[in-house]
Structure formats: C-alpha cells, structure tokens
Amino acid sequence: MQNFTFHNPTRILFGAGQIGSLRREVPQGARVLLTYGGGSIKANGVYDQVRKALEGFELLEFGGIEPNPTFEHLMKGVELARAEQADFLLAVGGGSVIDGTKFMAAAIPWHGNEWDIVSRHMAPRAALPMGTVLTLPATGSESNCFAVVTRAATQDKIAFSSPLIFPRFSILDPETTYTLSPRQIANGVVDAFVHTVEQYLTYPADAPLQDRFAEAILRTLIEEGPRTLADPTDYAARSNVMWCATMALNGLIGAGVPQDWATHTIGHELTALHGLDHAQTLAIVLPNLLWVQRTDKREKLVQYATRVWDCQDGNEAVRLEKGIIATRTFFEAMGNPTHLNAYAVGEDRFGEIVDRLQARKSLPLGERKDITSEKVLEILALAR
Ligand code: NZQ
Ligand code: ZN
C-alpha cells in the first residue's frame, strides 16, 4: 500500500427530513448566500424546504448556475457576495451547483485573477465556509475538495482542488432525488461507477480493503441503479445510490492506491468541445480505454470481471473481455450510449481533443503514465 493522508471533514446528514437540520448546521448570525441552478429546486419543493428551515436567517440568493458551471456566470455570484458581504455559502443542487459554489468560496476572498485558481492551480489561502443540500447523487462533490469549472470563452473545462473547499456539512435526503429525469439518474450511476473504477482498476497494490470497498460500491450500483430507473420513488434504492456516489469520491477508496483519471480527463474535453453531459463522456471513453489498456491492467481486470461481474468461466483473457463487455452493457442498460456516433461527434474532431490535452500538458495519462496521444486516438477511434 502507498503512504497516504486521509482527512474528510464534511459532516454528512443523511435521510428524509434532514433539510430541517439546516438551522443547526448553518452558523447562527451568518449572512447566507443560497446558490442554485436552473430552477429544479423551485419546481420540486426543495427551495421552499430550505427557506423554511432557515427562517430568521439573513438569506441572499444567486441562481442560474449552469450544468458544467462557467467562470463567467460564477463571477457574477462572486461580485454579489462581495458587495453584500455574505459570509456563508449554501449550495442547493447537483455537482455543478456545488462545484460552482466551491469556486465562489475560494474566489470571493482572492486578490488577483480568479481564473488562476482554476487554470494555474494557485492555492487559495482562504475560502468562505460552505454547506450543501445535494439533489443529484453523482459527483461526490458534496464530500470532497474538488471542483470543475469551465471558461466558456475558451471552452476550457478544468478541475482544481483545495482542502479549504471541503463543505462543512452536506445534507443528503434521497427524497430530493425523486424528480430527477432518467437521463440524470443514469448519469449519476455511471459517474459514481467510473469514479470507483478509476481508483480501483489499475494494478495490484496490496490493498485488499480498498479493493473490497470499491467492489462493494460497484456491485451495489449494479444492483440498485436499475431499481432507481424502474421506480423513481423507491426510497431504499435512491438511498443506496446516493450513499454509493458519496463513498465513491470522498477520498476513502482512493487512499493508498494508484489511480487512473484518464477517462475523466478525456471526457472533460468532449464536454467542453461538444456539450455532452459529463457521464455521457465517461460511458463512451471507459470501456474503450479498458480495452486499449488491457495488458497494463490485466491483473485487476481479471479480478474485476471475477468479483464484480461473477465471470468465473474461461481463461483470464476470456474473463477479462467479458468484464469489459458487461461494463458496456450496464452503461447501455442504464441509458447511456457507449459510442460517439450517438452524439454525432465525427472522427475529424479527434485530433483537436489530443491537441488540447497536449497544450494542457495532460499527456501522458494513466496510472503508469503510458496513455500517449496515440493511445488517446486509438481509444477515440474504438469509441466511434
Ligand atoms: O440546474 P437545475 O435546475 O438544478 O437542474 C439540474 C441540471 O439541469 C438537474 N437536477 C439536479 N437535481 C435535480 C435536477 N432535476 C430534477 N430534480 C433534481 N433533484 O440536473 C441537471 C444536471 O445537474 P448537474 O449538477 O450538472 O449534474 P451533476 O451532479 O452530474 O454534476 C456534473 C458536474 O460535476 C462535475 C462535472 O464535470 C460536471 O461539471 N464533476 C465534479 C466532480 C467533483 N467535484 O468531485 C467530480 C466529477 O467527476 C465531475 O467531473
Ligand atoms: Zn465524474
């Protein structure tokens, strides 16, 4: 096992009715800026629940945070928070609202060009405290120190991290997810699945506990994902998917093990250039990346096929391939196509993706840093 430091300071309040706990979690006397997206929280009653729980608090609002939140829009929220001297941020929504609010938390006290926090990974020395009410289980953003922000003007979609942007608390009420569309449910399950795979499917690192944590999350998503699609108000299924998504990217399963974030890195370019949803890109890239990297990842791929997909028959090569096919079939069954032709992204655009990765100095990718520009092109060609 590799050395690691594990510290997750986010307090999780899980279950139906937990939005009422906001009164105790938000500091007394805080000037709260409530942030949200395009209006789903107003349509499904979450906004009213939040306002009721915070009766008596000074509450400002900043809405309109887009899926794949943009620097340009978020800076309006930063200006508002500065002008109104907000001192606590409350993000109510999915990963985009939470990520956008994390950026705002770091940008509000920042002196200088705020985009540097994202693009140059300049470490913020301060950030406003924030909490979240999660309405879309997917990203794990509610309990981690990462955020992904897009600069619309240049189509740059970039992740940054800082220990200062961990939410102080996150409220996870599965009932808030009942109004999600099948597309967003599928996206959430696939995103959590791929987060788990990217911290698990590398090479053996004598870390059986982390392996079994990861396998437990994957098996649970395989069981519960289809149940959430079949019945949007299945509380047990919604709860299980929600907890899986948090556990998939809160630092626990990745502690002490090699990681491979190549699928996400390639996927971010597909979103920035072609507007695909985040998880739609992952469903396309991951199965093809696993195939191209099958020699590097052989031992863990066989373990994955055997323990996660119960592929017991055949030699290693056969089981390994069955595991990759099962992954693709699962994504398709959830409703996420695994080929680019479903989104009309042609082969002529692949070079641009590689050029951008090169310009960002992101290449080579992978746990062994051997996913070169040629391999990215091979992955994309398989994904046509
Ligand atoms: O904007 P509103 O009106 O709220 O609608 C949203 C949005 O249109 C809607 N929605 C959310 N909760 C709902 C709901 N609709 C009905 N009922 C509800 N309960 O869903 C749409 C998508 O929301 P979004 O927040 O964009 O989705 P998601 O949670 O998948 O977040 C995706 C973003 O997170 C980043 C992605 O790159 C992308 O920008 N990621 C963040 C990570 C992190 N911070 O650790 C890791 C991930 O890998 C990912 O990169
Ligand atoms: Zn993701």
From TrEMBL:
GO cellular component: cytosol
GO MF entries: alcohol dehydrogenase (NADP+) activity; butanol dehydrogenase (NAD+) activity; metal ion binding; methylglyoxal reductase (NADPH) (acetol producing) activity
Ranges of residues in domain Alcohol dehydrogenase iron-type/glycerol dehydrogenase GldA: 9-174
Organism field: Mesoterricola silvestris
Family: Belongs to the iron-containing alcohol dehydrogenase family.
Protein name (record): Alcohol dehydrogenase
Annotated Fe-containing alcohol dehydrogenase-like C-terminal domain residues: 186-381
PANTHER family hit by this protein: ALCOHOL DEHYDROGENASE YQHD
Keywords: Oxidoreductase
Keyword Ribosomal protein attributed: no
Pfam families, per database record: ADH_Fe_C, Fe-ADH
